[in-house]
Amino acid sequence: MTATEDTGSGQDGRPATEAPRDGWPLYEVFVRGKRGLNHVHVGSLHAADDTMALTHARDLYTRRNEGVSIWAVRSQHIAASTRDEKDPFFAPSADKVYRHPTFYDIPADVPHI
């Protein structure tokens, strides 16, 4: 469907498929660059749906053709720890010293470690 096609009117005069902007969900955008191995958070945007979020993310965050992959994730679906939880949340990893390479002695006759 093109922008010029009539999709019918909603109650407020907008096309029926277009939601009010203040009702659009917030998306977090991650882009993987041509030389990168991982996706990096580049910003946020509001969009009516997933397709619109990807299109707007492409237009906003990869204008210079630097990206090879884009993730647009609704913010409500991201679970994150808070700064206040930092110490108690990561405390269990501190008592497992065997997970750190400094716990082990490396024999002198083993190269390249």
Full CATH superfamily name? Phenylacetic acid degradation B
Our count of helices gives 2
Percentage of residues in strands: 15-25%
Helix content: 10-25%
Strand count, sense and closure of the main sheet? 3 strands, antiparallel
For the secondary structure, the number of strands is: 3
Terminal-residue CA separation: 59 Å
Q: What would you report as the Rg, rounded to the nearest angstrom?
A: 23 Å
- What name does the CATH topology carry? Ubiquitin-like (UB roll)
Mean pLDDT: 78
Instruction: Report the CATH architecture.
Output: Roll
Q: Give the spatial strand order of the biggest sheet.
A: 2-1-3
Coarse morphology:
flat
* Domain count: 1
Q: What is the CATH domain class?
A: Alpha Beta
Unreliably modeled segments: 1-17
Order of helices and strands: EEHEH
Structural class: alpha+beta
Concise structural overview:
This protein is an alpha+beta fold. It has a single domain (21-103), classed as Ubiquitin-like (UB roll) (Roll), CATH 3.10.20.
Structure, described:
Residues 1-17 have low confidence and may be disordered. The longest helix has 12 residues, at 50-61. The protein has one domain: Phenylacetic acid degradation B (Ubiquitin-like (UB roll), Roll). The protein has helices at residues 50-61, 86-94, and strands at residues 26-33, 40-46, 67-74. A 3-stranded antiparallel β-sheet has the order 2-1-3, with helices on one face. It is of the alpha+beta class and 113 residues long. It is built from 2 helices and 3 strands, in the order ββαβα. Helices cover 19% and strands 20% of the residues.
